[in-house]
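subagent[fold] <- orchestrator: predict structure for attached chain, return tokens only, no commentary.
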Amino acid sequence: MRRFLISLVALLAIAVLISYGLWTTHRPIGHYLSDLRIQVALDEGVPADRGNLLGIEPELFPGDYQSLTRLHRKLAAYFEQARAKGLLNAKTVVVLPEHVGTWLWARGEKDELYRANHREEAMQWLALSNPLKFMAALLGAKGENRLEDARLRMKARRMAEDYQELFGGLAREFGVTLVAGSIVLPDPHLENGTLRVGGGALYNSSLVFGSDGTPLGQPQRQLYPGKEERRYIRASGEPLLHVVDTPAGRLGVLIGRDSWYPANYSQLNAQAAQLIAVPAFVSGKGHWSRPWRGYASRSVPEQSNLKPGEVSEGEAWHRLTLTGQPPISTAVAGMSVFMRGQFWDQANEGQSFGTLHGLVNSGNNRRGARLINLWL
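subagent[fold] -> orchestrator:
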């Protein structure tokens, strides 16, 4: 009798494991309605043959990342509307927001993850749906926040492939130079024109794609991650900034808070950068209008006289992002582009703005996705 009970328990355990395994592989993609509209919030300058800087401030939600096809459909709709408004040409440089590629970790998950009410609930579904991948990633995790590291690391190879396929494809499809926001990956680098990952620490990086869909230069790694991000994202060990040639001029990329440091503009000046793209990200409802919390970094520029709490977060971004303000920056134009939308209980805020010949232009702050355009 005892042997029979042991056998029965073993069979039940096997049945449970098989059912669980089948559950993790069942990932149907349901119907999803998404707002594809986008409005022109700023159109500054006069159209000429020098090209333009065009910021696309998308409004994105977890369901947009359920499949690469769905995400392409939404972003391509924004590009199509920009083209219909005469804002795309062979010399256009399009700028997307920080972390637009990072959320690719959510692709191909179960419906429960997209329907979660809170971010931590979504993270639990991620681990439950990918037990082997998650455990393997957790064993190889770096940094202080190993759980966050593992969540980003577990799909890194596919994320890199998706990032290049999606954003390189959009650049080629619409014949533009594309600053593809940023993506967090372990040790990202290019090998023979293909984005690869390694086994090292996570870095927040950005790639620029030419109009033929190929990357221009190596990934630009972020130099100054925020306080919370430093618990799992490493600052670039080599504080080098890359400048690439585009049809509209020489282009440098400063990711997020990297745009707050005058020394970075000195590097770009030395490389004769004419345009500066700033993929940026501000999270938290109402955070844009709350008191600025400071640099949130171990490094504070000696030139800075701005104290935490003196201005709002939005005002701080305007004052510290120094594109086109000589002698600190000799660039003709720059643009900071933020993401809109909401990921579970985490709202994304920020109002994109551009600088042309030293003048800051913000445009209206209506709800929804926005286009921010500067004619060069």
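orchestrator: received. Logging for downstream: The radius of gyration is 22 Å. The mean pLDDT is 89.
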